[in-house]
Specification:
By secondary structure, the protein is an alpha/beta fold. It has 14 helices and 15 strands. The protein has two domains: 202 residues, Rossmann fold (3-Layer(aba) Sandwich); 183 residues, 3-Layer(aba) Sandwich (Rossmann fold), CATH 3.40.50.
Amino acid sequence: MVSLDRANVLLMIDDLCLGGAERQLVELARGMDKQRFRVLVATLYPGQPLERELEGRVGISLLSLNRKGKFDFGILLPLVRLLRRERVHVIQPFLSPATFFGLTAAILARVPVRVVTERSGVRRDTKLGENVYRFVEDRLTRFADVAVANSESGRDFLVSRGIGAAKTRVIYNGVNSERVTVDGAEVAALRAGLGIAASAPVIGIVASLTAPKDYPTFLRSARIVQESLPSARFLVVGDGPLRRDLEAMAAQLGLAESVVFAGHQMRVAPFISSFDVAVLSSCDYEGCSNYLLEAMGLGRPVVATDIGGNRELVRPGQTGLLVPPGDPGALAAAVITLLGDRALASRLAEAARARFLAGFSVTTMVRQYEQLYEELLQRKGMRLAPPDSHIDRPGIALDEAQLVVGGSAREEGIE
């Protein structure tokens, strides 16, 4: 058995934009015990906002492969050289095509431990490029040690694609306490700044403005809610390629004065805390929603669609309400129920917060990943030494011409 004072762990992703998987990678990188794990974070494309949360942190090295476009496969060999030079013990890529490049390079570089990450609980509507990558990645997964999903639904999804159940694990997302902490005065100031009266009921959603989040259903339900409650206001936090279309749809539905599109926000806690009802209208892709966890942690009553991992967080009638996806009437009815029955809303919100506190902290999530890494390293004949035998090592020397931080952001669309 070889003793390691620290294990070198490389976490890899397409970029560090404001997304759920990206947020989880950042929290994992920040949370790992730096006496036992030396963390490298590699992106395919540089220049995204969450990089700022990793830059300059002790024990974390942030780098980019500076991919030139979706047809650039030339980053593979520099990645192989990086893995060998830095003697990476564990590699864990997130999302496609980072998983394709990460697993391929790890096999070539003979990285001992390879962890696949599945962030979705279901994928109904996919594009050709995504399907191609998933097909190849599923075949590469046979050379991985384990595939980790962030929900039981995600684990079932992995098994349905031919990945053996014995190779799968579930580690739920964790939320940093900073993201569920907010001051009441900050919430009041936010509402005032958005022109929302203190007495107006606010129905909100935090999600990218993309097809899987099914904003058309959210907006159609908003129209129904407003017919019953004319003072209701609807707050959309997030951005994406569908923003113009959704703004036009809101206007067509007569909601131009009632719906606020707040765009991307680095700090979402004040927005979620301003919601009287937190809604998630997704019709696809949901695994373990960071937003639902944050709403639960902030004590907001939740209405979500019954899809993917949502049902694992929102227990109907216990920690929130579930409705069928793509059903504006059902979504509106659930929202109106919670707005009209504040005792029910309060009971569900309190139970949701208790459930959040019981098992969805960043500490819990990071500890489970660390235990998994140690288990897999031991299978390969390596054992991490106790923390008190820690020996400092020099930082990463980034001497590859293609490894840069900064530069242009990635192109739009599925890779």
